[in-house]
Amino acid sequence: MTSPSALAAPPSWPASAWALLLTMAVLLVGGLTWRRPAFPNGAPRLLKGWPVIGSAGFFRSRSDFLRDGKAKSPGGQFSFYYGAHPIVAVSGPSARSSFYTTRGLDLGAGFAALFASAPKVDHLYDGDLTADFTVLVKRFLNKNRLEANLHHLTTDTDVALRKISTLSAVEPFDLMIGLVYQLTHRTLGSNDVAADPGLLAETLAIYGRMDASSAIEIMFPGLPTPNKLKRIWGGAKLHWVFQKIMDDRRKTGRTEPDAMQAMMDQGDSDVVISSVIIGALFAGLVNSGFNAAWILCFLSDDAHWYAEMRAEVDAVVSRHRLSADETAADILPRLSMAEWETEFPLIDLGLRDSIRVITPGASIRKNISRKDIKIGDTGWVIPNNAFAVYAMHDVHMDDRLYENPTRWDPGRYLPGREEDKKAPHAYVGWGSGLHPCLGMRFAKLEITISTAMFLAYYDFRRCDKHGNDTTEPLPSISRNAIGAKRPVTNVFLKCSPRF
Ligand code: HEM
């Protein structure tokens, strides 16, 4: 038997430490392997991955991993493990239809388990966060609320655009991500944050630090990984900021016509309110901010669509002008919601194709139906309790549907081409089937406003970081990322005022 003094003796410590580590590793491997459910016979062929961690490529280079796996597998369907999670990767038209339309394939459960880059608040919350979030987002994004809030969107955009320096190069991603964050607070968050540049910057920075999802955290959901601790800390810090605002409102009796107040008035707890706001801001940031900026980049690279969309905006401005001395800044904020939604069809197509081109990654579901689910007519199944993933590129980059698919080309949706209608669920950029995006109306509204006002206020062209003209092609898009990203190198724009 080892005596206590022997344990304390310096030479024996490294050996004991190694033994302890080894034991932990064996327990971890054993535990994981033991917990891994086996794929039943009807599941697609299992792709062999690493022991314990499984197929790390799903995390490191998702698009390549799913493309290669499809190419190597009979019928394009395959199974793999990611840590303890059994996952079936589906592809092709028939599999896509069943992925998007089968009840029992749950979006929230898939997202919760295989995504880990949002601030984490669920440890504070004992209800069904996903279900509550969905109900509240639907409530706050209805037409009347959006309409009542419209003046904030145009005023905030006006203020942000007027701050643009016409002397130096403008980096569109910081500009648009900051603006979208502010507009999302106006609509689904707190006016106190939206109106305070300091609070906006402080809280936006917390999301910025959360950009990277952690492979280890997803593989080993029980471990307190640094990423998980960072997300918990981020969620807590955001909650404290929002709680302070709510306390102040209660103490002073001050009210605001915003989502935070509406939830306070109906008696939601502070944690529910923070959780909904944090989730909504995250949904806005990961998609809307990037698209708002990418559209400007694509326009700066495409003289035809730049001229067409600028003319569309100018025609709207002329149509609504009441006197000769009015500028676009006087006219555009007067537009009603219906006018914003119907008078900019080309900007809408620009956004549609931006989403198709820049959104990498995969849609995720979990089979919670308690039985195996058939993958279309492929003959394979998604086993009960397994996850299913569908890579967006499988359809969006299919050159049998989309001509020259990596090119941004809003004209591909116009009558005569209508490439997105060539097959069922051929466009999944706003979701499809059972899970259309619940934020689409708001996202379209804010991106139409930011793009139209940018085109109305400035002429712009690509430049380098010193403001000199450049003919360099647009930098490429990180297709292997898990969500939308900035370009791999910075893009800059030189802006000249139009009035
Ligand atoms: C350009 C901006 C946006 C794009 C491209 C986008 C895209 C999508 C897509 C593709 C899905 C379906 C995901 C899947 O099938 O796995 C989705 C779902 C969803 N989106 Fe968006 N989204 C955007 C903005 C927003 C905003 C601002 C919100 C507001 C909070 C939001 C809230 C949601 C919600 C709650 C769902 C889940 C719907 C469900 O569970 O059925 N989205 N979105």
Task: Using brief descriptors, characterize the structure shown.
single chain; alpha+beta; Uridine Diphospho-n-acetylenolpyruvylglucosamine Reductase, domain 2; Cytochrome p450; 5-stranded mixed beta sheet; 21 helices; iron; metal-binding; membrane; methyltransferase
Q: What's the gist of this structure?
A:
Pfam families: p450. The chain has 499 residues and is of the alpha+beta class.
Name of the CATH class of the largest domain: Mainly Alpha
Q: What's the total number of strands?
A: 9
- Alpha plus pi helix count: 21
Q: What proportion strand?
A: 5-15%
Rough outline: globular
Integer average pLDDT? 88
Rg over C-alpha atoms, rounded to the nearest angstrom: 25 Å
Assign the structural class, choosing from mainly alpha, mainly beta, alpha/beta, alpha+beta, or little secondary structure. alpha+beta
Q: Point out poorly predicted stretches.
A: 1-12
Major beta sheet, strand line-up:
1-2-7-4-3
**Cofactors, ions, other ligands:** protoporphyrin IX containing FE
Terminus-to-terminus distance: 87 Å
Query: Which fold name fills CATH's third level, the topology of the largest domain?
Result: Cytochrome p450
The CATH superfamily title of the largest domain: Cytochrome P450
